[in-house]
Write a structure and sequence with these properties.
It is a single chain. The chain is mainly beta. It has no helices and eleven strands. The strands form two sheets. Strands 2, 4, 5, 6, 9, 10 and 11 form a seven-stranded mixed sheet that branches. A four-stranded antiparallel sheet has the order 1-3-8-7, with no helix packed on it. The N and C termini lie far apart (about 40 Å).
């Protein structure tokens, strides 16, 4: 059984920093691109950042220059370093990826349980 477990959320003042982690565990053959999404109250879930298995990254315009996504393939873990946080970054953050558990099986999509990030003074 594959699981994604996120850690690192919390309360931070505007201008502060947080680092989120998301570790995949279970029977894993291959992990594809890893993503961070967020969902603020009353809003749709939005894609924040993506990192491919080769390390290519992409960011939403709203977080470019402030957030950095990275991954450790040996640990099956993706990170989101968030700097210069703003109140509008307040949301539940979710990690997401596609994982193939056996080479002869198709990949499935997995989501973490979500971690709350609150930016407030």
């Amino acid at each position: 059984q594959v699981q994604l477990v996120e850690t690192g959320g919390g309360l931070v003042q505007p201008g502060g920093s947080l680092r989120l982690s998301c570790a995949a565990s279970g029977s894993i053959y291959r992990i594809y691109a890893m993503n961070w999404y967020r969902q603020a109250p009353g809003k749709q879930r939005e894609l924040v950042a993506t990192v491919t298995s080769g390390g290519t990254t992409n960011y939403a315009d709203s977080v470019k220059g402030r957030f950095t996504i990275s991954r450790d393939n040996a640990k099956n873990t993706v990170y989101l370093q968030m700097n210069s946080l703003k109140p509008e970054d307040t949301a539940v953050y979710y990690c997401n990826t596609k994982i193939r558990v056996r080479p002869w099986l198709y990949e499935n999509t997995y989501w973490g349980q979500g971690t709350q990030v609150t930016v407030s003074s």
